Amino acid sequence: MIRLAARAGMIGPVLFGFILTTLTILKYDFLLSLGWHPLQAPTFDWPSGLALGDHGWIMTATFILSGFMMTFFASGLRLSLPPSRLTFYSTFALSLAGIALAGLAFTTDPTTLADSTPATWHGRLHDLSFAMLGLMLVTAMILLGFAFRTDVHWRGLSNYTWLTVALTGPTFALKGAAFYVFLLAILVWSEVVAIQLHPK
């Protein structure tokens, strides 16, 4: 179970990053038509806008698959860490983050139409999932930083986890291209933790 969860945790970030990069390149002109710009407006309907238009189903499927892989990965962490309330709450929050990531499969509403078109039910669910993803992921990482300190096998990742979370504030304050730094840091953190989880 732990080995499979670790493999899910290792494959998930790589898959997500690959699909995200590939679709961004393929749909570059389409993203620009939505109002996105790689430097001036990197979070404008990105990455959610990749699920719109041609090949959008690929991003939708990636949201779902990546979300379930994160939830499965969280279950492996729960089994690996010392049993405690801290372990339960931290991995439960990570599981909820995975469910929220899968919830991004609800199609977003293009921002450019917000003033002229009423929000759709799936657009509202998408926005709710995005907010839940951010809240649960940050909560999980903060708690995991403490949980890692209770086991010698995981202790070395405690400060690294908190440092990754610390990028959240400056990233969203600076906005712009700094968002890519935070996204990459989260994917790398997930990969590092999954490698640590994998039985030697």
Please explain how this structure is put together:
This protein is an all-alpha fold and 200 residues long. The protein has one domain. It has helices spanning 2-26, 28-34, 56-80, 85-103, 121-148, 158-166, 168-174, 178-197. The chain is elongated, with a radius of gyration of 17 Å. It starts with a helix and ends with a helix. The mean pLDDT is 91.
Helix and strand topology:
Layout: H1 2-26, H2 28-34, H3 56-80, H4 85-103, H5 121-148, H6 158-166, H7 168-174, H8 178-197
Helix pairs in contact: 1-3, 1-8, 3-4, 4-5, 5-6, 6-8, 7-8
Total strands:
0
Shape: elongated
Summarize model confidence as the mean pLDDT.
91
* CA(first)-CA(last) distance: 14 Å
- Domains (count): 1
**In sequence order, what are the helices and strands, one letter per element?**
HHHHHHHH
> What are the segments in which pLDDT stays under 50 over at least 5 consecutive residues?
none
Helices, by number, come to 8
Short recap of the structure:
By secondary structure, the protein is mostly helical. It has eight helices and no strands. The protein has helices spanning 2-26, 28-34, 56-80, 85-103, 121-148, 158-166, 168-174, 178-197.
Summary tags:
single chain; mainly alpha
